[in-house]
Amino acid sequence: MEHNSAAIAEHGHSDDGAVKEIWKVTLILSVLTIIELVLGFWMMGMPDGALRYSIKGSIVILMLAKAFYIVGYFMHLKHEVRNLIMTIVVPLLLFIWFIVAFLYEGNSYKNLKNTYNSYYKERTSQQQETKEETKEEKGEEPKKSDAAE
């Protein structure tokens, strides 16, 4: 181990690069977070429509970019072998695909059940009417008691 000024200067130079990289990562993650927050607050009062859904999609894409950036730098996968990265990324993507596929299939089943099963459709509409009538009755009762006093 050398104790001369060249070794110390060389060691200090590598620390500067690491510090710059940490600041760069912090800045990128902060900018992405601020963009997400601005889009989220802008979307709050907006009615449902294509613009709202595109903003939601943009926020999800920004969140995924942040997640991959965090995994790359803080879990040190950026410097790993490609095969190790694929053992983590491929199962994650398959799991996301699995969730989306089952949500889509469940929604399709619900819609088909409501469309083709007339008994189920009639029965659920009666339950909704009963709930609405009950709410109206409860809403009217306090008004009648206030008038009686």
TrEMBL record:
The keyword Transmembrane applies. It is found in: Cell membrane. It comes from the Bacteria. It holds the Pfam family COX4_pro. GO terms for cellular component: plasma membrane. It is a multi-pass membrane protein. Residues 122-149 are annotated as: Disordered. Keywords: Cell membrane, Membrane, Transmembrane, Transmembrane helix. Its main location: membrane. The chain crosses the membrane at residues 22-43, 55-75, 81-104. This is Cytochrome C oxidase subunit IV. It comes from Limnovirga soli.
